[in-house]
């Protein structure tokens, strides 16, 4: 009697996403080893990247394993939109280029607007709500809680 076990990818989208998270999280963990982690009360520069890397890896494993289960929703990857991918990458690059000279509020608004161009038709209401909700949320998390020294406004406004 011959027993064969065949691995079946039920949800291709989750499989690829899980694999991506595992690679990204694992790489982040490996690259953060050279940084001082510190302690829970006095976190060093390596603490946050290590924590995010571990979380990404754990989420990736969960998504990856879930894509292989028989109960997973079946989905197939049919086509990757080069246009949408390029728009999302452009939004991230624009944020990186504008955060210092234009400040957090303008850079975040730009990344939301440019990223939303990947949708057709352009979701004006969603963009407006995203800017109104995410801007104060990002301000609280990164400026107030984590004390990241991002400028809030363009250099022209604050001198």
Explain what the structure shows:
The protein has five helices and no strands. It has helices spanning 12-32, 47-68, 82-116, 124-145, 155-158. It is mostly helical and 159 residues long. The chain folds into two domains: 1-78, no CATH class; 81-159, no CATH class. Helices cover 65% and strands 0% of the residues. Helix 1 (12-32) packs antiparallel against helix 2 and helix 3 packs across helix 4 (124-145).
Keywords:
about 160 residues, mainly alpha, about 0% strand
Low-pLDDT parts are none
Tell me the number of structural domains.
2
Number of continuous helical runs: 5
Q: Alpha-carbon distance between the termini?
A: 80 Å
Strand count: 0
Which radius of gyration do the C-alpha atoms yield? Answer: 20 Å
Sheet/helix structural class: mainly alpha
Give helix % range. 55-70%
Q: What is the N-to-C order of secondary-structure elements (H for helix, E for strand)?
A: HHHHH
Major sheet characteristics: none
Strand content: under 5%
